[in-house]
Amino acid sequence: MNFNSGDTAWILVASAMVLLMTPGLAFFYGGMVRGKNVLGMLAQNFVVMGIVSVLWITGVYSLAFSGTGKFIGDFHQFGLNHIWQQATGFEALTIPPLVFCAFQLMFAIITPALITGASADRLKFGAWALFTGIWLVLVYAPVAHWVFSPSGWLFQLGAEDFAGGTVVHANAGAAALALILVIGKRRGWPKERMRPHNVPFVLLGAGLLWFGWFGFNAGSALSANTLSAFAFVNTNTAAGAALLGWIVVERLRDGHATTLGAASGAVAGLVAITPACGFVSPMGAIAIGFIAGVVCCFAVGLKNKFGFDDALDVVGVHLVGGVLGALLIGFFGTKMTNGANGLFYGGGWTLMGKQAVAVGAVVAYSFIATYIIAKVLDLLIGLRVTEEQEVAGLDLSQHAETAYETASFNDGSRFSITSSGN
Fold first, then answer.
1. pTM of the predicted model as reported, rounded to 2 decimal places
2. Which of 151, 300, 348, 417 is the most exposed place for a label (fewest CB within 10 A)?
């Protein structure tokens, strides 16, 4: 096989950048929870890195990318047997099959990690670890096969998802909604104020996510070429436009723009451009980003209207943003970049119809399957910590640690100094 050393080097670097997104996500989420739960949040994200890394190699990669089935792969590359063979439909790749496997692993890691923000402050650590493994096999693997594998039925339909708007973000967002409906609301929500305990952590996490997202999106070209450059530029452009859109809404609605809103807006734009980054022009990226910033800013309020406790706005940002980005390809997609023309480029409603089918199928399957998985696990082992453990915080009750040895955190930013060792 003729492999291109430049392409190979780029995808290896992109893989490392995508892996960095999960610790970035941990800090992004960790800063938004109360101080007594920050280690619990970081631990849930880090354990995903371990669980998925092992399961991906032993079988999930094969289920996602091997074989010719329309709905699920086979076990041809179980345990990375036959890894010298390219994944089905990727025979023209100029990178070694193991590099492609490593790159896709990083997507599989961050997808369940995204769910942790919705269920923050109340999940048992062991139950979360078990849920992650089951969810990866039963939900992520088939959805990735449908959309990313050339054998998958949504890929063959012509639905476009360049880097995971449906596979990663809409999938995780729908799963997050199902999980929180099973485990219920945090004790005291929504009456108690549960403020972020460390907003600088949130900004740090957002910065790491923004950086890693260049590998996430530009790396999905699977080559170092003009298409990867379009994906790179579109990613940054949409993030900036969404940041502005979010803080404009805050300023007009609330009278002030917040740093937390700026970080959330940037992430919303990154989410929305993920499926579209290789299919739209930079001007289309500005439109998609700004729309996502405005819509997601309003969407995070849905939890108050409908009464579901999405602690860190995974539904409002990742489900809504992922769905929005996938559907907007139907308007802004252009052959001048890649893919098919959308409505605004003379393509009619055909592409929009395909995008709607993909979004509907992924969201419905992920929600239903996750609800069943969570319900069964809750009945068998219980997903939620006890009331006493929740009051004490996940750091102490699940890990026998505290993030801040000299501070007793209450409702977020405020804390009282106590004697050393308490």
1. 0.94
2. 417
Question: What is the spatial distance between Cα 324 and Cα 318, in angstroms, rounded to a whole number?
Answer: 10
* 3-state secondary structure (DSSP) of residue 222: coil
SS3 of 99, please?
A: helix
Q: Give me 118's structure tokens.
A: 């919705």
pLDDT, tens digit, 9 for 90 and up, residues 221-243: 999 999 999 999 999 999 999 99
Which residue, 327, 330, 333, is CA-closest to 285? 333
| Residue showing tokens 């995204």 | 114
Which element (helix H / strand E) includes 365? Answer: helix 350-380
Query: What is the DSSP secondary-structure string of 263-313?
Result: HHHHHHHHHHHTTTTTTS-HHHHHHHHHHHHHHHHHHTTHHHHHT---TT-
147, 90 in Cβ contact below 8 A? Answer: no
Tokens of residue 134, six digits: 């089951």
State the DSSP code for 87: P
Phi, then psi, of 92 in degrees rounded to 5: -85, 0
d(CA 324, CA 78): 35
* DSSP three-state, residue 409: strand
Rg of the chain on CA atoms, in Å: 21
* Cβ neighbours of 68 (radius 10 Å): 12
Dihedral sign, Cα of residue 173, residue 36, residue 378, residue 302: negative
Set out the domains of the chain in order of their start, with CATH numbers. 5-380 (1.10.3430.10)
Q: Determine whether 407 is exposed, middle or buried from the number of CB atoms within 10 Å of its CB (0-12, 13-18, 19+).
A: middle
How do residues 22-81 score in pLDDT, each as one tens digit?
Answer: 999 999 999 999 999 999 999 999 999 999 999 999 999 999 999 999 999 999 999 999
- Please tell me what DSSP assigns to residue 220: G
Output the six-digit token pair for 20. Answer: 């960095």
Query: CB-based contacts of 277: which residues, under 8 Å, 6+ apart?
Result: 162, 163, 217, 218, 220, 230, 231, 234, 235, 238, 285
Tokens representing residue 224 in the block: 């170092």
Q: Is the Cβ–Cβ distance between 199 and 260 less than 8 Å?
A: yes
Q: Where are the beta strands (DSSP E) in 299-369?
A: none
Q: What letter does residue 139 receive in the DSSP assignment?
A: I
